[in-house]
Every structure is written in structure tokens, then in C-alpha cells.
Known about the structure:
- By secondary structure, the chain is α+β, with helices and mostly antiparallel strands.
- It folds into 3 domains: 14-118, no CATH class; 166-214, SH3 type barrels, CATH 2.30.30.60; 220-300, Alpha-Beta Plaits, CATH 3.30.70.100.
- The protein contains 9 helices and 10 strands.
- A hairpin with a 5-residue loop joins strand 3 and strand 4 (199-203).
- Helix 2 packs antiparallel against helix 3.
- The N and C termini lie far apart (131 Å).
Amino acid sequence: xxxxxxxxxxxxxxxxxxxxxxxxxxxxxxxxxxxxxxxxxxxxxxxxxxxxxxxxxxxxxxxxxxxxxxxxxxxxxxxxxxxxxxxxxxxxxxxxxxxxxxxxxxxxxxxxxxxxxxxxxxxxxxxxxxxxxxxxxxxxxxxxxxxxxxxxxxxxxxxxxxxxxxxxxxxxxxxxxxxxxxxxxxxxxxxxxxxxxxxxxxxxxxxxxxxxxxxxxxxxxxxxxxxxxxxxxxxxxxxxxxxxxxxxxxxxxxxxxxxxxxxxxxxxxxxxxxxxxxxxxxxxxxxxxxxxxxxxxxxxxxxxxxxxxxxxxxxxxxxxxxxxxxx
Length: 327
């Protein structure tokens, strides 16, 4: 490498010397072509000027040549290291089963981060002041961050969702004030389909900024129903009827056991809570079927579900009572 640099330096200096000598000869001939004495004096002057320029070039090469070469080497090797780090990070994330949507972005982020440090180190090696450059980059980053703070908040929330995975595609959730089945989780937003098949796009900042209700993740759900019977009906009989309805449905789980209990003595009825456990996928089918079957069972066994009612008592004085009787 040293011999190559020496050859390159000699070629450059020879070319520069020829240019300087040629330009000096032309200048001397143009200034006084008829004066032999002036021409004889111009040649030594041109040689002295060329020697001074060559000395300056030697000094600059000696002072900055190695720095520039070192900066180039640092950049080349650093870029190779950045690619290596990015590749290793990608393999590590795939081995730990990080979401595939996040892997390419984190690979590029790792590569860019390492490359920034490499460029700064190369500039510092070349003798370029990096303090000002770092300050400018920091100020620009702050300005961009303030301008895109909403998008950056969504991005940060998306990274958290992809890393911690509070829900997955196919889960029925309630997020950001909306209910539906998760279609996809992206870096900036989450897409869900509502029960009536409406596509809802929720910004990730709203998802992580509130409560996340996942109705699917536990695998089972409890169906909560309230059935009222008349005060004149036999409560023990009503309990047996409700339990028999639950026992006939094979979708209802035995563990945890279903609950049938009196929950309240309301104004017009005695209310039972009927709470069976089912698989999350069977929730709505069981909910609708049980509502119908319990109503039919109450009627078939001679019981009633009373309507809200009030007893009104009218009081009248003696004269008004006599007038009513006479009428």
C-alpha cells in the first residue's frame, strides 16, 4: 500500500510540474518574446515557483493524506460491520419469533444506527469538525420529531404491540372504543372488522393509551343471562327447570360449572342469574339459543315471566263514596 501511494504521488507531482512549467514558459514568451535576457531570467523563476508548489503539495499530502486514507478505511470497514450487525440482529429476532412485520424495520434501524457512528468516526479521523455536524443533525432530528410526534407515538405503540402481542390476528377485542375481530397489526395502526363486517382502522397510540379487552385469548367465556319469574312461582322448580335446560346443551362446559342462582327480588319478579361457561367461539350461538330455550321452558312448566306492574289504591271521603254508590 505504501509503494502504491508513492507511485501515485510521483505521477501527480510530475503532471503538476509539467503543467506549471508549460504555463510559465508560455507566460514568459508572451510577455517579452524579443528580449533574450528576460526569457533567460524567467526560466529559473518558474522552476522556483514550481518547487514551492510541490513543497506545499508534499506538506498537504503528508499532513492529510493518511487521515483521508484512514477515514476511507473506517467507512468501508464500518459499513461492512453495519451490514453484519443488521444481519445478526435479523437472525436473532427470527430465532426469538419476533413478528415478521417488525423484523425488516429493526434490521434497517440497526444498520442505520451503526452507519451514523461510522460516518462520524470517519469525519473525525479526516480532521473534519464533527461537533457542528452533530449539533445540526440533532436539531434537525428534534424538528422532525416535533412535526411528526403523532406518527412517532403511533410508531412506538406499534412496536410495543408487535413485541408484547396483547392480541393477535383473529382475536375478538375492544380497543380504542371499537369492537371487532383483529385483521392485522401494523407499525402505525391496527385493522379490525366489526361484527357487522365494517373495517375499522385504529391508530396504535389509541390502542395502547386505553384498556385492551381481549375476549378470545383465554379460550372460554361466561354467558350472563337474567330470567325473571313471578312471585307466585315455585323457586325450587324454576331452578330445576333452568338447570335441565343447561344440561341438555352439549356446548356448555362442565368445568367451570354453570351457576343458577336468585340474584334479586325486583319490583315485579324474582330474578335468576343463569351463567354457563362456553368456548369463546360458541359464545354468541349459545347466548341466542339459551335466551329462546329458557323462555320456552318457563312457559312449558306453567310458570310466567311477569310484566312490570303497579298496584294503585284510590282513597275517597264519605260524601264522595255515597255519591259513587248512588250513581
